[in-house]
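For the sake of clarity, the format in which proteins appear in this thesis is described at this point. The record quoted next illustrates the convention:

___
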Amino acid sequence: MITVTINEKEITLEKPITVLEAARSAGISIPTLCYHPALERYGGCRLCLVEVEKMPRLQTACTLMTADGMIVRTETDAIAGVRRGILEFLLINHPLDCPYCDKAGECELQDLVEKYGPTTGRFKEKKRKMPESLEDAIIVRNMERCIVCTRCVRMCEGVQGASAIAVMERGGHSHIEPFSGGKYDCEYCGNCISVCPVGAIMSRMHRHSYRPWQMTDQVETICPYCGVGCTVTAQVRDDAIKRIIPKLGSPVNNGLLCSRGRFGYEFVGNRDRLTRPLIRKNGVLEESTWEEAIHRVTQKLGEIKEKYGSSSVAGIASPRCTNEDNYVFQKFMRVTIGTHNIDSTARTGYAGAQQFIENIFGQGATANIISGISRSDVVFVVGGDPTTVNPILGLQIRACSRKGGAVLTLGKVSGLRYFSPHALDPASFTETVLLEGIVTELKNRKELSGSHSSLESNIKDIAVSVEDVIKECKIREDDFHSFITLLSEASNPVLIIGKEIIQSNGASYKLLLLSAINYLINGRIYLLSERANEQGLLDMGCASDLLPGSRPVEVAELRRRYERAWHVTLPDKPGLTLFEMIHGAKEGSVRAMYVMGENPLFNLPNSENVKEALGNLDFLVVQDLFMTETAESADVVLPALSWAEKEGTFTNMERRIQKLRKVISRAGKEDWRIISDVSGNMGVSFPYDSAEDVFAEISKVSPLHRDLTYDDIEEGEALWPFKGEPLRGGMEISCNKGDGATESGKYFLAIDRPLFHSGTLSRKSSALMRLCPEAVARISSTTAAELSVTDGDSIRISTRIGSLSLPVFIDEAYDGSLIKVSNNFRGKGVFSLMEYSLDPVLKSPCMDNVIIEIEKSDRHVQRDPKNDSEVKK
């Protein structure tokens, strides 16, 4: 134990910390400007100077470590004089424009000058002038306000890892600006905005439209975008969200956000939001009342169920809706309709992969703490770029590298290229051979423990020589051996799996190989998750073969628990998966479909086939925020409330349940309430008055969520395995190697997952659209030279099922023959060009062998590669 005395107050510490941290833990304030708890200690501003007995000079409290018996004084006349002098120096060039500055009211310099002075300045020289920069789409820089505390630089380089800004020149000429010159060439996370103590770096959104003291409310809630589940604070004025800021100290993101989380909230107030129900009359969707719309849904679903049976109705749930919404939806499908025909877009990757891995290692095998990645000694990334899919998780990988850990990648991962990755970049379609080679070499170096006989039986059957790996994959032998050495010697390894490997030919066999690697190195698995509640959706039972708590439908003993709770007899066979529903609709066995918060017509491959299938239905009801491509085909459209307008919970990829709080009010109904109204009109009443009522039933019905309450969630005690009963693994392993056939072609189509967009929701955010306004064809410089195109030229990409004309974006960090296109922009989605086959085990689509033809178009655009802006010519 360490005992220190600060301002005559005795403080007992368990371990050495800085004097500043010790003082703050005891409620003693010491002023700072360069210090920030999320950044490394710097000691540059000198405002935290304190007196320490037996030390001849004043010491910086932010860097001085406590020692037993230390006596410290933080407020003396000498200290006050020094602080006053420092502030006077800072004000030499700082403009006195507080009434005009958007930082007024939360400016740390303003607060310190008010407390310590000086009241007047003695310097007569002219202030240094720097023009305000509005060159960036969403960030404004006014660097004459900058005090060169370097918080932004240390955040960008030491935490975010983007290294986009730096201190330029020396001495009195020092100033901070982007490396790229006028505009930022960065990830637009906005974390520099969070740490700037003055008004030098600010958001352009709602510029000069409010002051901090005008906020009427601020509500802590959860980001609605990816599966990381960052804690955010929404600041509200006039019942509208004015700003989203991160929460320092939150267990998931600890004060960090990505561009989507910080700037992507504007969709909530978008003018295109649906406000009234719509019913198709004479082929046209017309506004209606809630009563008429719900009556129409009830009538048509009842008629189809009566005529064709319960199995003729299917439901698609949403990973953007809350646990409560999804629980009520699956209950409606199973109890009111009487079918297990329920699934979601999690079926495109996450659902099948997690179930496969949990069958081997047990439930919760992928429920690992995100912050633990930074403390690993080896991180193996396969199947995507974590820094774009789950940006805050990606920062943990970068942090691992900075701490000396090894980052291994299968293929080149753009977001990790500056973090000394050990990349094995195999020839196209040879990943299986490479993974088999890795398993073989690890098996030769490490003994099998005997703890998993089924998996070990599969491992023993895998045998590929190093020579075959080198020959087929076209990689260097020394690179392969060093890769294996790092994996085999790891003491705390992590395996991160993305969708690209799950959506490839032979995906289930590749997952078996990855599971074998994880078993041999005794690692932890993380599955990248693109949607906010993808995990919660599955835990609520929104899958054709799973009940709430992820219990298998086919096990009678487990199924009886739900039958008793819901007073119903459930079908004893699984229902249709997502792609089986689409096939059933096209073939006529599925006659009606209820889609909640999803856009399958755009978000599933082979869009034209999906459109044809949905058009063949007798009845389609869509419940959503906007008039999506799917809603345009619906017979009834029901407007729902967004993430910011309702209460509920999300479950992130760690399986941490977090509270979603209502931020603003809006006329309308929550998704669970709409479903309850429909069910009630069909004769099955759901007794819920609030989201908490729904969760209370979840905690009674689901063995995984047993006795869990909202109070537990508020107190942060809803982390896996909660209070529940996880299922064990060790089941027999079934997988499919794929057909192994690869069509010959020069160029192949792949899915681009841009940092600034997520699904179709982000295209309703004006800030994100400014950063990335349209779809592009992302190609390598080698491909550009082969096609004789430059940045901004237009090319036409054609497959067997369609074609798109897109501007070219040349990615210098990419050297493959794949042409990458995103699936975010209306009329320009890559899924409109992609055919697929289904992995028979995972039931997920395989889309890695789509041959394309390319021709140069006439249209030309002048593009700015830094923010994707364009001027058409």
Summary: The two ends are 71 Å apart (CA to CA). The first helix runs from residue 19 to 25.
